[in-house]
Amino acid sequence: MTARILDGKAIAAALRARLAERVAALPYSPGLRVVRVGEDPASGVYVRNKDKAAKAAGYDSATIHLPAETTEAELLATIATLNADPVVDGILVQLPLPPRIRTEAAIAAVDPAKDVDGFHPLNAGRLAAGQPGLVPCTPRGVMHILAEAGVVLRGARAVVLGRSQIVGRPMAQLLLGADCTVTIAHSRTRDLPGECRRADILVAAVGRPEMVRADWVAPGVVVIDVGINRLPDGRLVGDVAFGEVAAVAGAITPVPGGVGPMTIACLLQNTLEAAIARRGAA
Ligand SMILES: NC(=O)C1=CN([C@@H]2O[C@H](COP(=O)(O)OP(=O)(O)OC[C@H]3O[C@@H](n4cnc5c(N)ncnc54)[C@H](OP(=O)(O)O)[C@@H]3O)[C@@H](O)[C@H]2O)C=CC1
Ligand SMILES: Nc1nc(=O)c2c([nH]1)NC[C@@H]1CN(c3ccc(C(=O)N[C@@H](CCC(=O)O)C(=O)O)cc3)C=[N+]21
User: Which residues fall within 8 angstroms of residue 194, CB to CB, at 6 or more apart?
Assistant: First the structure.
């Protein structure tokens, strides 16, 4: 068997095109502000990609780049200004932040109604409680890929590798909400390969290059690779050993060109929804 490749790049492009049409029909441009602190090298590329995609789809997008020496109080003041600005619908504080700044403090400072990352504890709580709210972009993008691929979720055994606040936990919540039987595995899980082999749907979000091997997966499994790992030789690989796992799986997302582009498209989707909730659609 050789797996169907789930083309996240194409699915994301189609979603961005639909969002651009909806934005064009609005009497205003949804406002997105990305706050970047310091010079984390990977962040530069992501922040530019977000800004480019947002502008191309008709959003009012801007990046606020604060110096590495910015204090937590200064960052919170910047966020408060954006919270109060009526043309700003979505605020994203790019992670990681410099170690002097508490990530939880920055996340909690964002107005939950403008929290297009879906990281604020109020939105995380809404998701856990099954209430409507802003949902983290990467897990939302994964659900979109699964829907586009026609994967049946009800009753399926889903295994999520990783339990971070930004990917693993919200991913598990969304799959549970879609009636999967969900297992969350992590660094203290006793038998990782054994847990993975039980999966009909396997979502890998651990940040360990090519950790998931062919003998970890059952034939026909749907594999979603969230990992983005830069190797010393410059290559970008996922958390899944793509070549050997694709020989066993039923479907698989590539890296690059899988979940990454969906994250950006879903950021635009969240920003549009936040804008309509604040300002209406006409
Ligand atoms: N495609 C995209 O748009 C995005 C991609 N990413 C990528 O996804 C990956 C995960 O990101 P993120 O969730 O932020 O990472 P974190 O480092 O916050 O979390 C990693 C999780 O994986 C678990 N883990 C780490 N090592 C192992 C191991 N050897 N065996 C089992 N479990 C392990 C950790 O367990 P424990 O809790 O026990 O420590 C933790 O729960 C990264 O590669 C990141 O770059 C992230 C965001 C967006
Ligand atoms: N507040 C916050 N929100 C985030 O959503 C957030 C963040 N901080 N910090 C960093 C991570 C990572 N992330 C990615 C987004 C897009 C790609 C992406 O588009 N990747 C492409 C290209 C990758 C490349 O060529 O470098 C791909 O996978 O095909 C990847 C990773 C968002 N993150």
Answer: none
Q: Which domain holds residue 92?
A: 28-112
**Co-location of 87 and 155 in the same domain:** no
ipTM at complex level: 0.98
Are residue 85 and residue 162 in the same domain, yes or no?
no
Q: What separation in Å is there between the alpha carbon of 131 and the centre of ligand 2?
A: 26
DSSP state of 205: -
Any domain includes 96: yes
- Is 163 annotated to bind a ligand? Reply is yes
Segment 104-130, tens digit of pLDDT:
999 999 999 999 999 999 999 999 999
Q: What is the pLDDT of residue 107?
A: 98
How many domains does one find in the chain?
2
Q: From atom 38 of ligand 1, which residue's Cα is the shortest distance away?
A: 187
Global pTM reads 0.98
Distance from Cα 240 to the centre of ligand 1, integer Å: 12
- Is 162 assigned a ligand-binding role in the annotation? yes
> Residue 156 is part of a domain; what is its CATH number?
3.40.50.720
Q: Whose CA is nearest to atom 48 of ligand 1?
A: 138
With contact defined as beta carbons under 8 Å apart, do 146 and 94 qualify? no
Mean pLDDT of all residues belonging to the chain: 97
Instruction: Quote the pLDDT of residue 147.
Output: 98
**Do both 36 and 97 map to the same domain?**
yes
Strand ranges for 90-239 from DSSP E: 90-93, 157-161, 181-185, 201-204, 222-225, 229-230, 236-237
Instruction: Determine contact, residues 252/223, Cβ cutoff 8 Å.
Output: yes
